[in-house]
Amino acid sequence: MATPSTKALDLEFVRSQFPGLDRSWTFFDNAGGSQILKGAVERINTFLYEKNVQIGGSYTVSQAAAEALYEARTAAMHLVNASRPEEIVFGNSTTALLQNLARAMHSQLLPGDEIVVTVSDHESNIGPWDRLQERGVILKIWPLNKQTLTLDLADLAPLMSERTKLVCVTHCSNLLGSINPIREIADFVHAQGARICVDAVAYAPHRAVDVQAFDVDYYVFSLYKTYGPHYALMYGKYDLLLELDPLYHYFYGRDKVPGKLEPGNPNYELAYSTCGIVDYLVALGERAGETGSIRQKIEAAYGAITAQEDALTERLLTYLRSRNDCMIVGQSLNRDSQRVPTIAFRFDGREAADLCKAMDVEKIAMRFGDFHSRRLAEYLGLTDHGGMLRVSMVHYNTIEEVDRFTTALDRILAGEAGLAKAS
Question: 266 is in which domain, residue-wise?
Answer without folding.
Answer: 40-278
